[in-house]
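Morning!

This is the sequence you dropped in the shared folder:
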Amino acid sequence: MTTYLLAGGGTAGHVNPLLAVADGLRARDPEAVVRVLGTKEGLEARLVPQRGYELLVVDKVPFPRRLDAAAAAFPNRFRRAISQVRRHILDHRVDVVVGFGGYASAPAYIAARRAGIPFVVHEANAKPGLANVLGARAAAEVGVAFDGTPLRRSTVVGMPLRREIVDLDRGALRAEAAAHFGLAPERPTLLVFGGSLGALRLNEAFGGAWRDVLDAGWQLLHVTGDRSQLPDPGVDGYALRRYVDRMDLAFAIADLIVSRSGAATVSEISALGIPAVYVPYAVGNGEQSLNAASAVRAGAAFVIPDSAFTPERVRAEVVPLLTDGDRIAAMRDAAASVGTRTGTENVIALIDRALAR
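The structure's back. Tokens below.
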């Protein structure tokens, strides 16, 4: 019986692929022992127990970004975190560690190496985080979601995805999706969304250009986010929703998508073979632009910078695309070649290879 320790957390971008792999391991072998390593503060503290997995806790120890009191305290705190993980490894007889980035991963990689067991790294973003950059140097296997991610000895395995995305039959659900959103199943539909909190830039742009989308013969499903104050004009063909808890239905009716380009978003859209226009969030280290790069190279998507995304830009670039059937078809064909729905299985294959060494 194999015991797996999956390390990661902090954000949904780390927790969701971790849980997808945990579910895949448990589905393959119900006798396998799957435990999760995370912090008390991260999203994993709520989501992991909800999914039925035991959460083993490690201290949250951020890497210092400047010379201050926190930097001076970092070495001792980090050593303590490594000791905590090593104790978990020994107490639970862990056979392999799998890290997905975040605060829990860095001490997990070092503890695994000191305990003499293999560890595997999965990086979701095209621009890897520091924990995974360091971990990849000694990992038994390294998997990345996007081609071109600069991690040593890495293999492109894609993103472990939610089952509702992996199993989604868009054609079979289109009529149900149309009824759910009050749209017509036979008309092409543009889906615009910016995450659970929405994206102000996308909301403002389509708040000023939604009539142009409808005039082009398309419907618009606009998910604004809970905080949006954008008024609903209440016209046929424009479904404005603050929040959607059935994104599978939103994807089922979408013929083109305009969205941010977080790693999970790009991976899900690519896996489903849907053409896209990405508007990368203009904060952080530029990872959202890099996440979209492989889809752009393939011809499945193009990018409009956040600072330039206005109603006028929608009219100049997005609306003409809606009336160009040949280009939409070419983007759709390219999109089908970019993504994968087997990210979970691919990561599990890396774990098996690490254990076989």
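Headline: The chain is about 45% helix and 15% strand.

More detail when I'm at my desk.
O.
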